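Why does residue order matter? Because the sequence determines the fold. Keep that principle in mind as you read this record.
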Amino acid sequence: MLREALGERLKTAMRAKDAPTVSAIRMIMAGLKDRDIAARGGEHAGTIPDSEILRMLQGMMKQRRESIAMYQQGNRPELAEKEEGEIAIIESFLPRQMDEADIAAAVKAAIADTGAAGIKDMGKVMAALRERHAGILDMAKAGAVVKQQLG
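Structure:
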């Protein structure tokens, strides 16, 4: 499903002569092809599932956020702006992320379900959150909320 969406968006961007979008989608597709090649002979027979594509896209967003911080620190606003544009394009392929209230509710439910009593149980809670809310939950934000509620 995501593969088709990427292909269609690439075609649309090429027709519109939208160079930044074409560049970003080609970068995503190159990363996807690398992952497909790495998956050959494995359980996915050369094509990774949408859940793995979502994980890859989230990783790409994290890389870009780190790059933005470095570019801003190095006084390179034009490069930071380019990265922000790529983030916007990548985000368009991701499901809507949970907001602060949803994250707090999900963490509270995961703590109750796992029976976590202290910070030493954080791993169990994070594993439950990752399993239930993969792709729509920012794990970094969730980790901070889990620490706050368990600590």
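The chain has two domains: 2-91, 100-150.
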